[in-house]
Amino acid sequence: MSSDRGWIQAKATKALNPGQVERTLTRLAEQMSGGETELRNTLEAFPLGEDSLLHLLSVSSICAARLVRDPEVLGWLRHPDVCASSRRSGRMLRDLRAITSGPLSEQNFRPLRLWKGREMLRIALREVAEAAPLEETTAELSQLAEICVVEVLRHWENELRSRLGGPDAELAILGVGKLGGRELNHSSDMDVIFLYSTEGQVTSTLTYHQWFNRLATKVFETFAAKSSDGALFRMDLRLRPEGSAGPLARSLESLENYYSGFGETWERLALIKARFIAGSEELAYDFLREHQPFIYPRSPTPELLDEVAAIKRRIERDVVGHENLERNVKLGTGGIREIEFVVQALQLLHGARNAFLQETSTLRALAALAELDLLPHGEARDLEHAYRFLRRVEHRLQIEAEQQTHTVPAERESLECLARSLGFAGADEFSATLRRHTQRVRTIFERVITERSRDKESGSAGLKIFGNQGAATKAFSELGQGRGSFHVAPRTRQIFRKLRPMLLQWLGDCADPDATLTQFLRFVEAYGMRSLLFELLVANPRLLELVVKTFDASRFATDVLIRRPQLLEEVTATGVLDRSISVDRHLKALRETNAAVGQLDPVRAYRKAQLLRILVRDVLGAADLATVRREHSALAEACLLFVHSLVAPAGDLTIIALGKFGGRDLSYGADLDVVFVGGNTRAAQELVVEMAKSTAEGVISPLDMRLRPDGEKGTLTCSLSTCTAYYYTRAQLWELQALTRARPLCGILGPEYLQRAQLAWRSAGEREDLFAQIDAMRGRIRCERGSGSEILDFKTGLGGMVEAEFLVQALQMRAAIWSPQFNAALDELKRLQALTADETTALAASYDFLRRCESILRRWENTSVSSLPPEESEQRKLAKRAGAKDLAAFGDQYRAARETIHAIYSRYLQKLT
Predict the structure, then answer these.
(1) The pTM is what?
(2) Is a pLDDT exceeding 80 seen at residue 299?
(3) I need a labelling partner for 378 at 20 to 30 A (CA). Which of 428, 552, 686, 725 fits?
(4) Domain 326-342+355-390+400-450, CATH 1.20.120.330 — does that match?
């Protein structure tokens, strides 16, 4: 025995904890049949080296106790394949079955606890022997916990079903926190959420909710139980909805209602790591898929980073305490939790647009952030090194007794022992390394989470163009630095510094720099890949001009681009803005959408994209006003014809265009004046509904049927003979005047209708009271449809667009000049000398000026506008967009146009009445 003691003492003397090692080796030798000799042979042949085992015995009293309690485990660890590499779950389960003769649940799961302790010893040994990297250690610990959950759940589910019957529903257990991330340490709680698929009744007195909560309670109580053999993993349910106050298990629908209505930032952080652990994998998948928008919101709240910082402050105040902030490697200053918060906060902010970031592992998510340039590579590297170091320290603290401790000891002797166990020469070297890592982590944490830095260098430069310089300063800061809820990579900030002066230059030319800057910020946030967008704009100043001018010209266009940022690339593709698109080309594209009746969103989306293209051509001056109006008309005609082909494939519904639609003279936000001829009333009704139906993609183009025979009181469709009889017997003059712009679009009755309409129209043109009747209608429109301000009403007021249109139409009718389009009709009137050359030129210029004002006002929201804005500030914006030097110059031009139209109109009123 003395020789035994001498050998054991010699081994113990070299260990970090001589007393513990000597006691353990002595008791092992006493229990072995071959005594010290067998123990010596075992250690000398130990696959990982006897030093690794002695090191484990020095740093872990619980592992030493396990070996003493069951020396056969030492023989098991001696097998070369046991500790040589990590073990998959199948291998772990085979060992579990091999050492268990009876049910795992006997003696309150004692066999499972013993097996778990044996595996914990193996994992700890591999770690201290540096035979396993951090990822292998945490993955094996997590896998071990999962197997325990699966086995316990299987037992209690079978037991409850056999005793109470069972629901026709499924249960899933989700792992969150470190379990979800496969990052458990040697004394982690298992954070889990229980969910079941649906509500119902097992029996008349037992609901699914009650049944599944009994099952969850049984599972939880099993993991909470302790015995002399140790315990299974601790199970923590506080991350479930409503925490400790909520039920242990909830239905899928209940979880959906909770997270959509009450979910908080800390719950998003928890669910980032959520994954399937046990039960129904399909149910777990359904939950994660349905809650993806909650976990990774497309529009994170502005307060998100503030909330993360507040959570960290509460942890430091309420959990750690000031005295331990520098020594707690998990929750203290620069600890593991700060690394996790940096990573998870950036995942929340960017994960919706970058699926690559939707990662449960901290280290893999950290690598993804660096790869996407959302975190500087140097910072990502420093955080990785710190994370590995701090987790290694945490594990070494916990291996000792598998207690949930994260605090580095304050006592010099204990600190020295910890330092040496981690390979440091002493406590001072260890403390310096710890301090270097935590200080670096805190610096990065403060930059990402808590700082609200401002670019002072460029904060106010060039901002005099803005009415609200404070808001502009904030907007530029958010573009270059990110909102409080958004992180911008350093490379992106560098690119923005190049973009900023270019952007300011174009904003200086805007009618409303403040609003345009706000729109630009909204678009950048919606675009997602901020760095890519900024690079495109810097490299292509023409694209920047397009974007700024479009945002200044139209809130409608801005909203379209914010909803569908990819349209920017489509609109600016080579050649797209250089040419008009014909009705036939539109129809070809619409047919390729495969839209169908009741499923016309592809048509609405196509129309919206084309409206954006037309608007950009207009704003950039790539198309004159007449071309823009023809393009609006061609797009509307193609959409109407396409939908008509779906609802009336037999072609038995004839459509006649009237008004500006008939004259190919549409502007932004216009309804389509049409008349239906034929007997297919059902198709006509369906066409009206589909054209006006509003969805998330908008509308196609509402139809205005008030110009049909008998107006709103008339039938939706009418026969050719009914139209003819109406025009000759009951139609008022203004209804015949409206036929000036009649243009058949489709249907077999179109040519015959046009022929009969023209005869009725020419007959009306011979009436002696023609001009008096038209003037009376003009006066009625002025009174009934005006805004009440004569000077602002550029459409219905004196000298407005209606006067010009009515004058031309009256002269057309008198001279029997059939020409639906206004400017073409003017040219014909000049050719026939119904108007003088000077009158034609003056009338055309004045009318086009008013149409230009109308177009500028309408394109802002793509809605009908017929009068100038009353506010002087809005009038100044209109003047700027119209190209006037200032508001006074615009006012002069506006009054001159109105006066010219009214003078010519009055001259012919006197001449023809």
Answers:
(1) 0.54
(2) no
(3) 428
(4) yes
